[in-house]
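Schema walkthrough. Field components (list of strings):
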Amino acid sequence: MSSTAPLSEKSPENLTAYVNGDFVALENATVHIEDRGFQFADGVYEVVACIHGHFLDLGPHLDRLQRSCAAIDVAMPCARAQLEELIAETWQRNPFDDAMIYIQITRGAAPRAHLAPDTLTPTLIITSRELPRPSDEKLACGASGITLEDFRWKRCDIKSIALLASIMGKQEAHRQAADEAFWTDADGHVLEGSSTNILAVIDGKLVTHPLDHQVLGGITRSMTLDLARKAGIAVEERPWTLDESGLSECMLTSTTNAVLPVCSMNGKAVGNGKPGPLTGKLRQLMLAAMEDLRRT
Amino acid sequence: MSSTAPLSEKSPENLTAYVNGDFVALENATVHIEDRGFQFADGVYEVVACIHGHFLDLGPHLDRLQRSCAAIDVAMPCARAQLEELIAETWQRNPFDDAMIYIQITRGAAPRAHLAPDTLTPTLIITSRELPRPSDEKLACGASGITLEDFRWKRCDIKSIALLASIMGKQEAHRQAADEAFWTDADGHVLEGSSTNILAVIDGKLVTHPLDHQVLGGITRSMTLDLARKAGIAVEERPWTLDESGLSECMLTSTTNAVLPVCSMNGKAVGNGKPGPLTGKLRQLMLAAMEDLRRT
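Field assembly_structure (string):
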């Protein structure tokens, strides 16, 4: 990190993006209008946190990226080692101390037809921006949520860019002055948020929906469950509802939020309406893991 | 049409696209990598046929485009009259005698976050390419289909670019050496194809799934139903299954296929396995309507 410009010199105007073999000024970073990512949502992505030049769980993120590509039958654009180098170089050119690396792969560009030629070169873009953090107010008072019956597709286990339903969910949350929309199935089970996973504390146990086609296997979700297990907290991956007696806390997890309390849902308090102790503990464990990276 | 270059001079290299206010060489037509169409499938589109410079049902296409934009809360990028002028100019610059006009609107470009700023300028792209036509073999022998249980989102009435499920459906059809994948609901009702609508002839009536959130209100579907009614053919919009007794024909409809017989489904013959008379009649009526445009 010593060779990079200090953060203060990095304004949005001089960020650099990787696009299909070249590093270019982000403001000039483009893809063809017939890129299948633009016309068909025919692609997948990852968002990785980078703390002081160290990537948080890059391995699991790249494992999932490969699984997502395989699920939609898109070839990885390059060997994994090369991808890791490109990610590192993208950060080095945009060396935010806390960075958010965005990686997107699409099937490539071709004259528009649903069935793609099998000769396409996949598109790869990588950007590095400052990692957003929850506001002090959200940390102190918790985030607010609404629930929406899930109208997304049935392969939410694939981290695809076909995110319009999630956008509509987030918009609806915003219209209701809430921070996040959480999808529920027809039986009222809480699945995940539009861009987060959600976990509850029920009778002292950490409960979250099991991995299936209805939820994304979030890397931060997985880290949180691991941290909980190591701390001796019981974990249950099972369908759950908001009206279960014994539900005392909810929390959301994501790369950009780490672990964040959710203190109201559909305008009603969750538990006592304040960030709960288990949420606080898991957030501290997660931040400690991130700070460990900083000190590496 | 007199001022335009003859078709033979239009090669893929010198096509022109409209992108956000400018006409540019298609090969250089790009959007920003942070366009929300590319990162979130946050956009909608239309495909319009243009016969000898006359657009086929442009009004209904633009009505639907406005409905799609409204459904996802994206502003139209310009007034309708101006959009019509841009579409006309795009064709004039790429004056295929039978042209396929592609129009896409996205919410615009912004640093990636699910919740978009409400100040974005929508992205508008328009292209004109040669209208593909079904091959003689497909017309003579009919298209083949497979059925897949629907795993798309629950707002298929919106003509959005979040098309990854449809791409996966088309790929699966291709793997099974079929032309199209048709989505079925949990009860086996046939909804629509991955890029087409589907209609059946059952007991001499033209039957197709009613308009709801599971199907797109296809313009060619609607034209076909209108032509049938005018020709005295009974039309029923109701859920239907492939194993109904009395089912003698299937046909698909789309801008690029007009009306096309579907003569096999999941490897089994539909009816007697040959293009049926009602399909043939409706195709001829549709082609006649298109030829009427040519003579306008």
